[in-house]
Amino acid sequence: MNTSADDGSPERAGYRRSAGTPRGEARRRELLDRVTEDLAVNGLVDFSLRRAARAAGTTHKVLLYHFDGVDDLLRQAVLKLRERRTVSAMAAATGGPAGRTLADRVRAMWSMLSGDEPGLRVLDEAIGLAMYDPGRFGWLGREASQLYLPSLVSLCPVDWSDRRKLEVAEMILGALRGFLVESRTSGDAAGIAAGFEALVRALEREEAAAGQDD
What we know:
Helices cover 75% and strands 0% of the residues. By secondary structure, it is an all-alpha fold. It starts with 9 loop residues before the first helix and ends with a helix. One of its GO terms (molecular function) is DNA binding. Keywords: DNA-binding.
């Protein structure tokens, strides 16, 4: 990812941000949509304000009018992709027949998350960037957790305690994130599948134990 100083910021370049008028907000959404689609297709490598401007069909000065520099633009685009991913994952997890177990729901979610649709890979790249430079990009990982955890908590049985829901949601998030990173790095499909089945069995045991505690 190109984060050189020539990407600028509104303060340094002397531009002002959109004032939030309906017309300005509509234009901002249009630009963000175009940049997000470019990010989904081409990933984080060499992402810069100038590349974003080309994708949006405008100039970097116009982008600096609407966004607080390249980091803000990246944050907004990644958030947009994550929201799409969360909606798709939750639709997969909550669809189907009633009475599905948590393990069933996580299996359906994983089937969607492990695909190779545009936008999925770049979100996994974002976690790698957060690990590479946590001082600048740690928010890529933190914001992912803040977005996904409530959704995972909502998949847990309603009669579980809040603490149990959070603990299990954290386990699911950590495991699935690890599997995704592994799939993008080693490509060990057999090993990932084995690990996922172990996660499913752990969830089945957790549900069985919770039932015995009632």
